[in-house]
Amino acid sequence: MEYTNKRTDELWRWSATDLAHGIRTGLISSREAVSSCLNRIEEVNPALNALVEVHAEEALAAADQADLAVKKGEVLKPLHGVPVSTKVNVDQAGHATTDGVLAFKDQIAEKDSPPVANLRKAGAVIVGRSNTPAFSFRWFTNNDLHGRTLNPWDKTRTPGGSSGGASSAVASGMMPIGHGNDIGGSVRHPAYACGIAGIRPTMGRIPGWYGPPSGDQSPSTQLMSTDGPLARNVADLRLAFSCMSEFDPRDPLHTSVPLLGEPLQKPIRVGLLRDVGVAKPSPAVNQALNDAASQLEEAGYIVEEVHLPLFAEAYRLWYLLVLEDFRTALPLVEQYGDEGMKKAAFHYFSNAKEWWGEEPKLSDYIKGYSRRGTLIVQLQEFLQEYPILLMPVSTDQAFEQDADLVSVESMRRCMDAQWSMMAIPVLGFPAMSVPTAVVDDLPVGVQLLGRRFREDTLFDAAEVIEAHAKIQTPIDPR
């Protein structure tokens, strides 16, 4: 089905910022933008399986309403008429919150979750729902309900997880902005694996809710899981981030803090953190760090190598605090999870017992949370001198599909490579993934971490790195 004419066939390549400006000024219509993305989805989604629901009629109706608002001269929101996707592990009114689980396929949400509500309030048009692994608890996006999502750069490599559907869709041009969430790298790693940008904000910055409407959230979910956008450029990421940050009373930690803070004292010092003693960066990752450091120095930043072993401790702590909460969900996983999720869970716990024993005690859990506070203070003090850290997203490029399921040892290699994916949620600071280059036909990039609620400083530094990036998206599936 063709949704639009040839004049607007390439709108799917446009950034969200350009689409919003074009719609606002009448250069293009929202229907044209949404139609172009729907055509692109028809073209590439069958090869990638990134979007597991496509709402063509619903999206076109919303686009028509957006165009009518422009004609009437109404006050327009920042994402007015711009197509986006949402992830199937958050509630969207009238659609199933499947979380990639077959038993949840008919679990229809009655109202939007906070991040979805905020995207709508910002004027966005939701064109579809993106895939996730079962229970959103792997770096590989595959499940028995929706099937496997492929990486547009290389189908033998993971698109990342758990927001792998969002990253694959954005990287291949299905829409300019994808919604994701992150408790163990689920925004930053998919962005990295697919060569786009993604931000995990400060805890409390973007409101979310991950429990049942009338139920309770686990402690680690409340304190470590947060929503965040994925986009093909930093400007779009900044735009989506600002729109998703609006207050929602359903989040127990949300804090209304200005998006822009006081300017940092210049020259801004950046700590370059390569290795915390868990896994050494590959040559491609090391080169990405070197390149980003040089680019920041050229822009006036001072970059110095630093050592912060607290990240290694925080990495291990994740496998106590989060896994012990997850242990309470194991009966549900055993009953409804697919074989991949069951095996991954076994491998997670098999490795974690090296640090925390077969069955950690309540006293271990309490001590773990006590130690968490100490590590947060240590990093907070360090960031007074170095307000930005430059570090790996992962110590290797996108893993081969299902590398976590091969054996306990293969899972350990994945876990170690992802030390920063786990350490940062424990600590609660903002961090973003920025693409830099393509090496051996796969994307590579770096991660920036900053002070709490100073995402603005990360966007500024990321734009410097982006200006030199040797990678372009959207791309056709390969």
Structure described in brief:
The protein contains 16 helices and 13 strands. The protein is an alpha/beta fold and 478 residues long.
The CATH architecture can be named as: Alpha-Beta Complex
The profile of the biggest β sheet is: 11 strands, mixed
Query: Portion of residues in helices?
Result: 40-55%
Integer average pLDDT? 96
- CATH fold-type name: Amidase signature (AS) enzymes
Relevant CATH superfamily: Amidase signature (AS) domain
Low-pLDDT residue intervals, each spanning 5 or more residues: 1-7
The CATH class name reads: Alpha Beta
SSE topology string: HHEHEHEEEHEHEHEHEHEHHHHEHHEEH
Number of strands: 13
Main β-sheet, spatial strand arrangement: 1-3-2-6-8-7-12-13-11-9-10
Total number of domains:
1
The rounded Rg comes to 21 Å
Report on this model:
This is Glutamyl-tRNA(Gln) amidotransferase subunit A. Its EC number is 6.3.5.-. Belongs to the amidase family. By secondary structure, the chain is of the alpha/beta class. It has one domain: Amidase signature (AS) domain (Amidase signature (AS) enzymes), CATH 3.90.1300.10. The protein is 42% helix and 14% strand. The protein contains 16 helices and 13 strands. The strands form two sheets. The protein has an eleven-stranded mixed sheet with strand order 1-3-2-6-8-7-12-13-11-9-10, with helices on both faces. A two-stranded antiparallel sheet has the order 4-5. Helix 10 packs across helix 12. The longest helix is centred in the last third of the chain and has 24 residues, at 362-385. The protein is globular, with a radius of gyration of 21 Å. Residues 1-7 have low confidence and may be disordered.
